[in-house]
Amino acid sequence: MPRGLWTTTVGSFPKPPHLEKARNQFARGEITADQLRALERDATIEVIRSQEEIGLDILVDGELYRGDMTTYFAELMEGFQISNPVRSYGNRYYRKPVATGPVRRTKSWTVDWWKFAQSQTKKPVKGMLTGPYTMMDWSFNEHYPSREALAMDLAEAIREEAMALAEAGATFIQVDEPAISVRPEELKLAVRALGRAVEGVKAKTITHICYGDFDVIYPALLDLPVDMIDLEMANSRYDLLDRFKQHRFTKEIGYGVLDVHSHRIETKEEIKQGILRGLEILKPEQMYIDPDCGLKTRTVEEAKEKLAVMVAAVREVREERGITA
Amino acid sequence: MKIETTLSGSFPKLPLEPGAPNVRVIRNRMDQSKATEKDLSDAARETTRRIVALQESAGVDIPVGGQVAWDDAQTFFARGVPGFTIAGLIRYLDTNTYYRQPEITGNVSWARPVTVEDYRLAQGMAHRPLKAFLPGPYSLYRFSRDLHYKDPKEALAAVGEALGREAQALEEAGATWIHFEEPWIGRAPASEAPHVAAALTPLLRGRRAKTVIHVPFRSPAAVFGAIRDLPWTVLGLDLVEAADAWDLIPEVPAGRTVALGLVDARNTLLEDPARVADSVRRARSMRSDLSWQLCTTASLEYLPVDRAAMKVARLTEAARLASANGG
Fold this sequence. Notes:
By secondary structure, chain A is an alpha/beta fold. Chain A has helices spanning 17-27, 33-54, 71-75, 111-118, 132-137, 147-168, 187-198, 214-217, 240-246, 268-279, 300-321; strands spanning 6-7, 78-89, 92-104, 127-130, 140-141, 172-176, 204-209, 228-231, 252-256, 287-290. Chain A has a single domain (6-66, 111-131, 145-321), classed as Alpha-Beta Barrel (TIM Barrel). In chain A, 40% of the residues lie in helices and 18% in strands. The longest helix of chain A is centred in the N-terminal third of the chain and has 22 residues, at 33-54. Chain B is an alpha/beta fold. Chain B contains ten helices and ten strands. Chain B has helices at residues 23-31, 37-58, 75-78, 116-123, 137-143, 152-172, 193-204, 224-227, 273-286, 305-326; strands spanning 4-6, 84-91, 98-104, 131-135, 145-146, 177-181, 210-215, 234-238, 257-263, 291-296.
């Protein structure tokens, strides 16, 4: 009997309103770091329980203690300062890292959180990092002579963290590279930097990519030196499958079936159809079913409902096709 | 000869001084029903005043209004044009910023002025002619999802026509400078040249205002043949991210103006004005039959407001040095 169609998520979960409020209170100096940390731990326990109840196979810690996916790491590193707010869209702003000196990892960024999350469940919890190319591309650079030099120093730092996660027992380590797909001319640099970041890491390695111009970067994307590439499939109406027909997808795939930008809860049938279309050209043991991207922009309830429908759809496909987890 | 200075596009909306009117704070308070539309419009007016004043006090020759009411560079215009509907957020090219994607769901046809009030508000606060901003037609089309037209050329002509009508409305409101932002022209392969021409031709025909075709991020070399002889006034080039755009300078028709994008709008590292002035001199040495402007490579809104203000000061200082020594 074939195995496959394991279920997971891309990383972030929505912060419950009381935690958002607490983060704002902390920013205004109204509560202490310890008080915030206690609330983050409680919320992480809740996210782990929620994923177990839904029946996901591979869990995440939900990243409830992180703000922006680059600034979180930069704040913990040597060589970065954090800018004043920059607009990303409309009334949304974020603070960007600014490389002002050699960037270095001087302490762990995520290992304690990973250990804490893993201690709450018997299922595997993914270690979650942001990749060197994305860290470089989404930072200002006032120190390095080139984008490459910054990316490669970041790769060294990220590799240290990935090794520490593997040493702590993480069997899945995801190094997100959402920026990789928008500058095809730098794909070789991205491949080299990610390759260094995961070199020698004894775990299944994953990278998540979204948004880009896949006409240009596929099949070169398969050069990324990881075991699994996680892609948004639903958002592009599974158009990527046509490219996979022309050039076989040779790695494991994180197969996104939920539109994380929509409030609408997908139907079980449409998710099943998306998975069945994938099974026409991919093997079940290649496929990990998940949302298109992180769920942090959805409400807690929307995230749960979407994931519950996803897991139900996967169970039906497994049963119909005789596939086990 | 004096080098004129200008900016390209929008400017950060947050105040430099704590406690100053802040549209971000007001919009957050509106979400909590603690502020009104009037509060927002008051804050937007004061923000625009601050942005114009900052440029004028730094000595910018052709200031911009800052697009305080715009969520991104496309949808403010597209939202007001029949034929467009506005869909979900997607990433803006290779930046970590986003825009709501316009969708073409019917015939694109201009119905009323969309940006004129925004322009009038800013111009009313300026002591010099201000540069109005519009998305360029080729880029607006490429940023959009076309669910209506069967022939892209037909769609591009319609989008160009609508923008031409908007430009006319701006001219009637007194605009003497109109900036068209065209990042996609820098990404267009040579095969797209007919489409680029189809979009820009109706737009530029018979314009009274001086027109700027600004191409941030990449060189428009592949399709430059299609735009070279169109009646634009200024070609804006990004000479930081797209160093190969220097190669286009010999191709520019005599008598035109090139806006040299030498102040990097996407990195906080501050330029040395003397080095920027050297680059201006380099351009001048290449052609004596062109006029020159010095500008930012792209919108300064990619930067935090403190750095954006410093960049404006460096820009005008570099122009002063280049003008003083360049003859």
